[in-house]
């Protein structure tokens, strides 16, 4: 089982989170302002494990 955990860890380091991928695409022409309030909480695994500090919060 240890080998699987290490392989998963290595793959996780290579694969970006979907929010990182989407925030790198120019979506401005497809988006419009929305009235209302938005709440967002950064996933702990992104902040602590992968060190991602921007991504989904950039989209909001």
Short structural summary:
With 60 residues, this protein is an all-alpha fold.
Layout: helices, strands, pairs:
Blueprint: H1 2-14, H2 18-23, H3 44-49, H4 56-59
Q: SSE order, as H and E?
A: HHHH
Class from secondary-structure proportions: mainly alpha
Number of helices in the DSSP assignment = 4
What's the mean pLDDT score? 77
For the biggest sheet, the summary is: none
Low-confidence stretches are none
Distance between the termini: 39 Å
Per DSSP E runs of 2 or more residues, the count of β-strands stands at: 0
How many independent structural domains? 1
Radius of gyration: 15 Å
Strand content: under 5%
Give an overview of the whole structure.
This protein has about 60 residues and is mostly helical. It has one domain. About 50% of the residues lie in helices and about 0% in strands. The longest helix is centred in the first third of the chain and has 13 residues. The radius of gyration is 15 Å and the shape is elongated. The model has no long low-confidence stretch (mean pLDDT about 75).
Descriptive labels:
60 residues; mainly alpha; 48% helix
